[in-house]
Amino acid sequence: MKNNKQNWYTKLHQSPQNLAAKQVRQNSKDKLNLSIFFRIWLAVVVIIIIASIMVFDQLFERVEPTSKQVIEDTLVDTSKLLAASLSQPLQTGALAAPSYQNQLDQAFNAAANTHTKTPKIYRYNDKETLNQLSTWFNQKTHSSFRVYVTNANGKVIYDSLAKSDGNAEGQDYSRWNDVYLTLQGKYGARSTRSDKNNADTSVMYVAQPITNKQGKLIGVVSVGKPVATILPYLNVARQRMLTTSLTIMLLAIFFAGLVAWWLQQSIAMVTRYTGSLDTHDAKPSFYLGKELNELTNTIENMKHKLENKAYVTDYVHTLTHELKSPLTAIKASGELLEDATLEEEDRHLLSQTISEQSTKLQSLIDRLLLLAKIEQPSFRLSTQPVNILSLTRTLITNQQPRIQKRGLTINYFVNGAEYNKQCEDSSFMASLPRILADEFWLSQALDNLITNAIFFADSHIDIELNYQEAKSKVQLSIFNDGAGIPDYALDKVFDRYFSLSHQAGNPNNASMLQTNAQTPNQPKNHTSNHKGSGLGLTLAKQVIEHHGGKINIANIHQTHTTTEGVQVSVSLPIAN
Fold this sequence. Notes:
Helices cover about 50% and strands about 15% of the residues. By secondary structure, it is an alpha+beta fold.
C-alpha cells in the first residue's frame, strides 16, 4: 500500500529533470513520426536501387564472357578460311619464301607500304598501348590478329608478329594446346596471359589443320586475338548500361514519388471530406482510385445513415414539442364546450379557438413535411427557366384579398426605377432575365416571404428586381414598412422554430417580431396574437440555397430617401 502511494506521488510530483527528459523523448518520437507515404516511397527507392545494382552487375558479368564467345567464333571462321588458303603454298614450299611472307605481313600491317610485322597490341599495360588500342578502336587502322603457321611437327614456319615483339618462327609449338590438340585431330584452342595477374592480358587462339588434297595433315594454322581489343567495346557498353540504368532508376524513383504524392493527396482529400461532413462538401472522386472511391462512397453512405437517424430523432422531438400547445388548446376548448350551461358567446370563442389551432396544426405539419423532403440528402430540384418577377406577381395576386383587407399598396421597381404599369405588359416581363429554378419550391419560399411582408407591413410593400447580366446575378428584394427587428434576433431569424413570440421575455418583443414563420417585424398599429410555426424562413433559406443563391434580412433605417422597415433580399444566378 505504501509503495502504491509512493508511485502515485512520483507521478503527480515529477522533478524538472524527469519532465525535461520526457519532453525530449516526445520530441524524438515526433521527429521520427514520418508520413506513411514517405516511408512507402523510401522503401520503393531502396528496392529500385538494390534491383538496379543487381541487374547492372548481372548484365555486365554476362557481357564479357559473351564477347569472348563471339571472338572465339570469329577465330574459328578465320582460321578455317586461312587453312584452306594456305594449303597450296605450304605444299609447294612457297610459304617459306620471304616474298610470300612479306605479302602476308602487309595484310596484317598498319600500312600497306611498310614491311614491319604486326604492331605490339599485346602489351597494353602501358600508356602507349592503351592509346594504340583507342586509336585502333576508333579508326580500325590495322588487323588485331596474330597468325602463325606450323608444319606437321609443330615447328613454326610463319609468324605475323614482329621480331621485337616475340616472333616465334623456327620455334617448336607442338606443346601449345592449340597446336597440340589440332595435331591430335581435336579442336585446338588456348588462352594465354602475358601477365598472370591480369586477365585482360590474355590472347585467345584457335587452330585449324592444313591438309593436302588427299586429306593428310601437313601443318597447322593458328589465329590469335587479344582480349584487350574488346575492352573499348566493353567500356562503351559499361558506360551505356550504367547511364541507362541510372536513367531508369531516377525515372522509377520520380514516378514512385509521384504515386506516393498522389496517394498522400488522395488520402488528404478523403480526410478533409470526412472532417467536413457537416458542411455538405462534395464527395471527392478519383479517376484511378477504385478503392478510394469505394472508401468515400462508404463514408457518404454512413453519413447519410447518421444524418437520417439524427434527423428523425430531432424531427420527432421538435414535432412533439410544437404539437403540444395547439393540442392542449383544442382539448381544453373541447372539454369546455361539453358544459351545457356555457353561454353562446363563449361557445363561439371556443369554436374559433379550435378552428385557429387546427389551422395552425395543418400549417405546421405541411411545412414540416416540406422541410423533411428538402433536407433529405437525396433531394434534387427539377429546374427550368423561371421569370422571378412574374412569379412574384402571381403569388401577390393570390394574396390580393389579404392585401385589400390590410389596405396595403404594392410597388414594383426594376433596377431602381418604378415599373408598376410596365409590370402588366407581357412584352416587358418577357424581356427580363430568367433564373434556372424549380418553380414549385421557389414558389413555396417566396410565398412565405410575401405572406410575412403582408402581415407585418404598415402601409406598403416594395418589390424590387435588380440585375446585371455581366455579373450573372438577379436580386429580388421584398420590403415592408413595419417595425424593425431587434439586433439580438437578426442572427437567429433563419433558425428552425425560432420566433420571438416563443420567448418569455419583453412582451413588446413578442408584439414586434415574428421570426421564421412570419417576416420578423410587427406592423405598426396592428395588434394580433398571431403566432408562427418558426419554420417559414428556415424553409425559404433551404430552398434558396439549394438553388445556389443567398438570402439576407436587414433593418432599413429611415432617411430622407428611404422609409423605415425590414427588407428581405434573395440573390440567385441568371440562367445561361
